Amino acid sequence: MTATVFSNLAGMSKEGLCALFAEYGEKPFRAEQVMKWIHQRGVLDIDSMTDISKNLREHLKKTTEIRLPVIVESYESDDGSRKWIIDIDSGSKVEMVYIPEAGRGTLCVSSQAGCTLDCSFCATGKQGFDRNLSSAEIIGQLWLANEQLGTFKGISQRVTNVVMMGMGEPLLNFDNVMEAISLMMDDCAYGLSKRKVTISTAGVVPAIDRMKDYTDASLAISLHAPNDELRSQLMPINKKYPINELFRAVRAYFASLPDRRVPVIEYVLIAGINDHRQHARDLAELLKSLPCKINLIPFNPFDMSSYRRPSSSSVSNFRQILQQAGYTVTVRTTRGDDIRAACGQLTGDVADQTRRGAREKKRAANEVEKNFGSVDILTLANDRS
Question: What is the pLDDT, as a whole number, of residue 59?
Answer without folding.
Answer: 94
